[in-house]
Amino acid sequence: MQTSVTFKNLDPSDHLKSYISDKLDRFDKYLYNPGEANVVLSVEKFRHIAEVNIIGDRLNIVGKEETEDMYAAIDMVLDKLEKQIKKNKQKVRERRSGKGKAKTAMGEPTGAVVMEDDGERRVMVQNIEYKPMDVDEAVMQMDLVDNNFLVFTNARSDRVNVLYRRKDGNYGLIQPNP
């Protein structure tokens, strides 16, 4: 990602520039084409302000945070931008697949009946879409969407995996044997 850093009322620091460029590199996995980031770091009395503008993939996302520590402000604004990018990308995916128009087409559970000796037991069948991603990205996706499990294709092994939330709050991963 092409990054330009501007300092206002603050001495230019190569360490801050490298910190920001390293943090912004994690957004490359969300953008299909190379993006451009304009960063403005400023200090007003005791407030440290970080403002980031990311342009790429028909997106123009702006975030601004102010705290008493510049590094904390940078981390907070980048977390905010990551949420915005994921939300925007999800909207684009839903529009392309047509999910927004026809809600009954995908994702609606359908009932299949399984007969047992003592009676009838219902099995709910739900069709889901899964996409290739890393385990780290799947964990971030689970944090954004409050589900108990996530089915995805592992980008490294090209196999279907299931990430689930355990009762103790940690995550579990189910992988097929090679």
UniProtKB/TrEMBL annotation:
GO terms for molecular function: ribosomal small subunit binding. SUPFAM superfamilies: Ribosome binding protein Y (YfiA homologue). The keyword Coiled coil applies. GO terms for cellular component: cytosolic small ribosomal subunit. It is found in: Cytoplasm. Residues 125-173 form the Sigma 54 modulation/S30EA ribosomal protein C-terminal domain. Gene3D superfamilies: Ribosome hibernation promotion factor-like, Sigma 54 modulation/S30EA ribosomal protein, C-terminal domain. Its main location: cytoplasm. Residues 64-91 form a coiled coil. PANTHER family: 30S RIBOSOMAL PROTEIN. Required for dimerization of active 70S ribosomes into 100S ribosomes in stationary phase; 100S ribosomes are translationally inactive and sometimes present during exponential growth. Belongs to the HPF/YfiA ribosome-associated protein family. Long HPF subfamily. This is Ribosome hibernation promoting factor. The lineage of its organism: Bacteria, Pseudomonadati, Thermodesulfobacteriota, Desulfobacteria, Desulfobacterales. The gene is raiA.
